């Protein structure tokens, strides 16, 4: 019995160590592995993942934006460096929990289910659903990325209801998301074609475009939330460096002088 438990424990340790090993994940993107470094599986995908960290370094971000850019950026870089199972799950679950936090903070109150009367209750429901989804994600890990991208469809549904208030920013957000998802799909399902073209970097472009799309989309959702929750603050949208440019970095300005504390 003693030797059985020792053997079982050794086997479990080896199995545990295996999920941290290079290329233990079933997911492998189109970029050639170890082409630019013997220690980095997907060099350009890893570098583009760190683009999210640069966004944090050069911007004065609040706590949610810190989590939404830095955490997935770090875990995504780790995943593309190793293509390990642990890296994959950290990458995908960090995105899931960031989305859940965004729902808790900004999901329009008027779209709550009829049995929910306040944001605190809604946040508890989101928490329970996120915990359940986290556990389910280990059952079929290869399906996680597809499920995460489906949240974009729900985002489009919310925009269809609210977009008249910020039509320009809504169009930019949707356009960037469509470009990003097109790169993701092209890399996932058209790899052989892009290899023939000697261009295997669509997933790298996805990382760049999705970071920009999230920056635009989170500003849009925060603006719509301010209109719904604290309309007396007179929220408005401005673009850096110039409002008249067709594309710019969006930010919210509060033109009202009244107290602007959000009621949860």
From TrEMBL:
Keyword ATP-binding appears in the UniProt entry: no
The molecular function GO annotations come to: metal ion binding; N-acylsphingosine amidohydrolase activity
The enzyme class is hydrolase
Its BP terms in the Gene Ontology are: ceramide catabolic process; sphingosine biosynthetic process
The membrane topology term of the UniProt record is: Multi-pass membrane protein
Q: Catalysed reaction per UniProt?
A: an N-acylsphing-4-enine + H2O = sphing-4-enine + a fatty acid; an N-acylsphinganine + H2O = sphinganine + a fatty acid; N-(9Z-octadecenoyl)-sphing-4-enine + H2O = sphing-4-enine + (9Z)-octadecenoate
Q: Where in the cell is it found?
A: Membrane
UniProt entry keywords in alphabetical sequence? Calcium, Hydrolase, Lipid metabolism, Membrane, Metal-binding, Sphingolipid metabolism, Transmembrane, Transmembrane helix, Zinc
Q: What cofactor is this protein dependent on?
A: Zn(2+)
Pathway listed for it is:
Lipid metabolism; sphingolipid metabolism; Sphingolipid metabolism
Q: Name one GO cellular component term.
A: membrane
Q: Which InterPro entries match?
A: ACER
Positions with a binding annotation for Zn(2+) = 80, 203, 207
The record's principal subcellular location, in a coarse class, is: membrane
Binding, Ca(2+): 28-29, 31, 33, 42
Q: What does this protein do?
A: Hydrolyzes the sphingolipid ceramide into sphingosine and free fatty acid.
PANTHER family for the chain: ALKALINE CERAMIDASE (PTHR46139), ALKALINE CERAMIDASE 1 (PTHR46139:SF2)
What protein name is recorded for this chain? Alkaline ceramidase
Q: Which organism is it from?
A: Neogobius melanostomus
User: What taxonomic ancestry is recorded?
Assistant: Eukaryota, Metazoa, Chordata, Craniata, Vertebrata
């Amino acid at each position: 019995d003693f030797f059985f438990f020792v053997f079982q424990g050794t086997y479990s340790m080896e199995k545990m160590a295996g999920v941290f090993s290079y290329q233990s994940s079933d997911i492998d993107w189109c970029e050639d592995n170890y082409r630019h470094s013997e220690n980095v599986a997907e060099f350009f995908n890893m570098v583009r993942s760190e683009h999210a960290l640069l966004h944090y370094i050069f911007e004065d971000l609040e706590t949610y934006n810190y989590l939404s850019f830095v955490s997935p950026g770090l875990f995504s870089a780790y995943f593309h460096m190793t293509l390990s199972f642990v890296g994959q799950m950290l990458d995908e679950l960090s995105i899931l929990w960031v989305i859940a936090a965004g729902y808790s903070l900004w999901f329009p109150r008027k779209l709550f289910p009829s049995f929910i009367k306040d944001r605190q209750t809604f946040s508890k429901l989101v928490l329970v659903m996120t915990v359940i989804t986290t556990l389910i994600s280990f059952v079929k890990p290869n399906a996680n990325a597809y499920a995460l991208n489906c949240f974009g469809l729900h985002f489009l549904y919310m925009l269809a209801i609210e977009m008249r208030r910020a039509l320009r920013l809504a169009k930019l957000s949707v356009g960037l998301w469509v470009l990003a998802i097109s790169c993701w799909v092209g890399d996932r399902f058209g790899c052989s074609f892009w290899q023939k073209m000697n261009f295997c970097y669509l997933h790298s472009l996805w990382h760049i475009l999705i970071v920009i799309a999230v920056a635009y989309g989170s500003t849009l959702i925060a603006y719509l939330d301010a209109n719904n929750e604290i309309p007396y603050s007179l929220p408005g949208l401005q673009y850096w460096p110039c409002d008249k440019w067709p594309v710019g970095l969006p930010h919210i300005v509060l033109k009202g002088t009244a107290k602007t504390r959000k009621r949860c």
